Amino acid sequence: MTIEMGMTAGTGLMLIVMLVSARHLHVPPWKTAILSVLLACAGYAGAKLMFAIESGGSLAGRSFFGSLLFVPPLMALAALALRMPPEDALDLCAPGECVMLALLKVKCLMDGCCVGVILHTAESGGVIRFPSQIVEGIHALLLCGALMLLIRRGRCRGQVYAWYMILYGGGRFILNLLRETEPFIWILPAGNFWSLISVAIGAIWLLLKRQRALPRPTA
Asked: Does the pTM exceed 0.85?
């Protein structure tokens, strides 16, 4: 799968998922289509940038946390340009990014990166590894469904991206323990470090959102 094919397929699948959710947020299809293209571009650039940060300057790989952490300010600006609430745009981006992640795991499986820990070593020297790429891809699809359900129910409007950061960060922290990794900061691998950052940002986001929603005391 070439980068061009992957981005084309990814943008198309993201658009389908985002269109389904857009109906519940009353976002016009044309705005959703623009957001899906911008999300694909911003997500790819963010993943490259994060890998450069982690590796000390190399652009040879990808780190999905770049998509997760760098996309919100960019998509918020895009939403303002489209004259729509930034929180609605981010709600749409959350399940769309899960599709992006699932496709990225397919690419990881093909490239042989992000391999799992060794579960068993045979006498012949062969090894059985934890299927990290497959499990993480399934996790992404399940998360996509959960976020779409939140949007459909309408109870967490403006909070879906925050929940995405918490749920993905928490799940990724656990799954990263089953990968072959190296320390990034202190004893934490990069995936675990960014997972904690993601959960913290998502939790603070929800806290601030709920504090704003509380009625102000009257004099």
From this structure: yes
Q: Which helix (H) or strand (E) holds 103?
A: helix 86-111
Look at the block and give the residue holding tokens 């991206």: 161
- Map tokens 């930034």 to a residue: 86
Q: What is the pLDDT of residues 180-196, one digit of tens each?
A: 988 888 889 999 999 99
Q: How many CB atoms lie within 10 A of CB 190?
A: 20
pLDDT in tens, 138-168: 999 999 999 999 999 988 899 999 999 999 9
Tell me if 171 sits within 8 A of 147, measured CB to CB. no
Flag whether 141 is in a domain: yes
Range of the domain at 202: 3-213
Q: Which of 193, 25, 175, 174 is nearest to 95 (CA)?
A: 25
Length reported for the chain: 219
